[in-house]
Amino acid sequence: MADDAATAEARAKEATLVAWLRERGRVAIGFSGGVDSAYLACVAVDALGAGGALAIIGRSASYPAAQWAAARAVADRFGISVLELDTHEMEDPRYAANPTNRCYFCKTELWSLLVPAAAARGIATVIDGTNADDLGDHRPGAAAAREHGVLSPLALVGMTKAEIRALSRRRAIPTWAQPSSPCLSSRLPYGTAVTPARLAQVERAEAALRALGVEGDLRVRHHGDLARVELGGTELDRWLDADCSALVSAVRAAGFARVALDLRGFRSGSLNVLGGVTAA
Amino acid sequence: MSASTLRDALGALGVDAAVEARDRLALLRPRAAADARRIAGQRSRVAALAAEHGFTHVALEIGAVATEGDAALPRD
């Protein structure tokens, strides 16, 4: 059957990944606790042992507290060693201006700290969770990874997001069904300055909506006084049929004067479309 | 993009709503709760209409109703 064939193919890719990791001996992983890096870190620990893999978290205002908690929970559960570093991309005016290549400046800051930190611990190979699907997206941060010698083994073995989810599920990694979770700056339209206050507004609003029971994909897009809420299809139908007063109150309490539901629902890279950006 | 022509097109669907253009986002503010329900009930059609009028995004404002003064609001 098609599903079985896909699983067999995914498992073959995982075997290739394990062999690739064993050839490296020790690795440091840029670790956000998202679907991809959580899977990669778990496989790395499995393949190399606890001493062979170090997960490094870069922390800043653009990294949601809930994401950090999820990352630490995965690390604790699977015996992954973690190092945390504070990153300072907000202090870079090129990043704060929020150009379409904003991610390049963020990743430059991240890898310029993470690669030396790994080297200081005797780890020469630094890897990230970029997968095969990511290669066709607008991802200026990938250039920063290349410039710092960061490798992307999931993409190298051709592993897709769906395969990573399926393989994560087989390993009982709780992130297997977790929605994708890009940094909070991705909620600001290009050209809108990235500030800790705006990111905090978005984080509060999304946390409040989760507390109301919103599941699946969720983005609160920041349009100044307006919060444009993108929900997955099922949740959008549910809220369009419901009394939205609790949702409105929750988002207003986060600091937005006006609230709107996007009628097309969640779209990954929605603000790329709004900003006229296409895949590189 | 034209907020006023999109508003007229929505009218043909039986929807009375102010349309505020924010770059390529059309923000719809229904005149009454019944208009909000009409938008929700035909959201795919409304999204398609917005695209036909040059908007890449369309959103329904909630917790607010339009007033006489903001029938069409080109903001940017």
Mean pLDDT of chain A: 93
The ordered H/E elements of chain B are: HEEHHEE
**Strand pairing plus helix content of chain A: what structural class?**
alpha/beta
The geometry of chain B reads as: globular
Number of domains of chain B: 1
> Which structural class should the secondary elements of chain B be placed in?
alpha/beta
Question: What is the largest interface, and how many residues per chain?
Answer: A-B, 22 and 21 residues
Query: Which architecture name of chain B does CATH use?
Result: 2-Layer Sandwich
Name the average pLDDT of chain B: 88
The oligomerization state is heterodimer
Low-confidence stretches of chain A: none
Major beta sheet summary of chain B: 4 strands, mixed
Please give the structural blueprint.
The complex is a heterodimer of chains A (280) and B (76).
Chain A: H1 2-24, E1 27-30, H2 35-48, E2 53-59, H3 65-78, E3 81-86, H4 93-96, H5 102-120, E4 125-127, H6 141-147, H7 153-156, H8 161-170, H9 196-211, E5 218-223, E6 226-231, H10 233-240, H11 245-253, E7 258-262, H12 270-274
Parallel strand pairs in A: 1-2, 1-4, 2-3, 6-7
Antiparallel strand pairs in A: 5-6
Chain B: H1 3-12, E1 17-22, E2 25-30, H2 33-41, H3 43-52, E3 57-62, E4 72-74
Parallel strand pairs in B: 1-4, 2-3
Antiparallel strand pairs in B: 1-2
Structural overview:
The complex is a heterodimer of chains A (about 280) and B (about 80). Chain A contains 12 helices and 7 strands. Chain A is of the alpha/beta class and about 280 residues long. In chain A, a hairpin with a 2-residue loop joins β5 (about 220-225) and β6. In chain A, α1 (about 1-25) crosses α2. The radius of gyration of chain A is 19 Å and the shape is globular. The mean pLDDT of chain A is about 95. Chain B is α/β, with parallel strands linked by helices. Chain B has one domain (about 5-65): GMP Synthetase, Chain A, domain 3 (2-Layer Sandwich). A 4-stranded mixed sheet of chain B has the order 3-2-1-4. Chain B is globular. Classes of the chains: A alpha/beta (about 280), B alpha/beta (about 80). At the A-B interface, α11, β7 and α12 of A face β2, α3 and β3 of B.
